[in-house]
Amino acid sequence: MRKPVLGVSIAVIATVAAALGGAGAANAAAPTKSPIPNSSPGWLAHGAGVTKGAAAATTGAVNARVYLAPSGGLAALQAYATAVSTPGSAQYRHFLTPAQYHAKFDATASTVGAVTSWLKAAGLKTAVEANHRYVDVTGGVGAANKAFGVTLTKYTHDGISVQAPSGPAYTPASLAGSVIAITGLDTTPSTVSPKTQKPAPPSAGYRNAPVCGLTYGAATPQNLPAPDGTNLPKFMGNDLPYTPCGYTGPQLRNAYESGVTGGLDGSGVTVAITDAYASPTVLADANAYAKQTGDPQFANGQYSESLPNAYVHVNASNGKPQCDMAGWYGEETLDVEAVHAMAPGANIRYYAGKSCNDKDLLDTFARINDENRAQIVTNSWGGAGDVVKPALLLEYQTLFLQGATQGISYLFSSGDDGDENARLGSPQTDYPASDPFVTAVGGTSTAITADGIIGETGWQTSKYLLKDGAWTLNTSFLYGGGGGYSSNIPEPQYQKDAGIQSPNGGRAVPDVSMDADPTTGMLIGQTQTFNGVASYGTFRIGGTSLASPLFAGVTAVKIQAGGGHGLGLLNPGIYSTKGAGFHDVTGDMPDAGAIRVDFTNGLDASGGYTYSVRTFNGAETTLKVGTGWDPSTGWGSARAGWIQ
After folding, report:
1. Domain architecture of the chain: domains with CATH
2. What does the CA dihedral 50, 53, 59, 62 come to, rounded to 10 degrees?
3. What's the pTM?
4. Are 515 and 455 in contact (CB under 8 A)?
């Protein structure tokens, strides 16, 4: 997760975007060099936590990436992506092919030539990305200092040692506006993490205890007594159900797609999934799970992968393991099985990042856009909070914009830490979910029976433990769906037009929501390692990591119903109809919470059981459900009316 030390105001973002309106030519009075926007490390301003060392030795190495501005400027690209995604626009759904996009928006050959000549003249080696998105730069510290007008120095901040410039990097004045961002001069790691919730640490094997219902409120397979030999006590005077064991594909389709006619199942549509790394057992696990739960297994060719040549397992700056590969395997498994559950006929193409570094996930989006095989991209990961480097935001946004111009819909989980106040000390949204050119999918607690959904509210959980025969508050806020108002990104026009009143002028999150509460989560099947032995098993899981692929599956069915054509950025259409076809989530659940029984050791009954109550929408946060759009669930959860 990104550290919350790289803050920037909405005004700064707006200024950067305006500056990138075109690749400017210097006038006669221009200086000899021009600063690269936001290239000075944001953490330098936090002097109390920063220790400055000596200048980096000129014999040291530098690996940097220089990102080039789109031809015509970012504003022109934003305008085009908005026009093709907005109902009523003359360009609505006049999407581009990748070749047309590159011809229209790639940095020109003359710009690339000028940038590489400048870098080579300083003694750096360059490698230009095939579609002119960036120039990779390698060389010595001395050459980098000369090229970018910096002094690379050793620093310690936030418990890590890095190499970074002491101020902004520069281009020649003649290239002002041609470079959108630079990474690598500051070696501070920039990583993302999955938005998944399961009880055990992600890298450890985990099994559900068998005390749970096959549907919400159902009788449990067996009824273990409380530790003192008596029945479990009432919660605030009421009897509560046990948690469901985990909803399956047939149950979830009956809940969200009931009423969809014509046998629609997502056939002919491709959903892309991105995560770090690639599970070697994901297809076998998904097929075993489908067979076990009564769904069709993948047909030949229905599941495919796009993988990097190699994976990065350690942090290059300190040589320590990073990213928790096994944890990402669980994320990938959830994503694949959740999409298949909602759209069993859709194709799934998995794009693996070679690590959890932002740079490597950005590369997956470039592959998705240039291949142009998918109509939807679901992403169940993100950073901690919306305090993101403006340079990084622009790198991500350029790729989201390319997708929108080609008719590709990008979805992101909104996060699992509610309004982030408990973790970061102030209400925030998470990025990339808060980008205006993606659809942020928030979380609900959802009661599903054989009759479908009988209750739904915003996912915000408190936890009570059984102590001395009574339920005692343990954690006032345990977890919950991310939402609120961005402190970095201005409110987009489609939200203003829909009457969303942002108290700080920031992008409002989420846009829509689906089931995410681990208490009412999905049953998935995965090969895990228990005491050194790998074996397949099922367990319940939640998080907005579940919500995003569920919504991706529903969207695949919608695309099929509409003739198979991509929809591009979904938000203008959703907001222009004020969530038509979505169920307005207003806080109605049959119970105050549910009783969860876990193996104390996460594996088996040998260590006994742990009992807890997980409440529904009972945690104290700024995110409240209400009529219409709200910062907990957006416009609500998808239903058949939106699909057809």
Report:
1. 10-71+106-189 (no CATH), 230-311+323-643 (3.40.50.200)
2. 0
3. 0.92
4. no
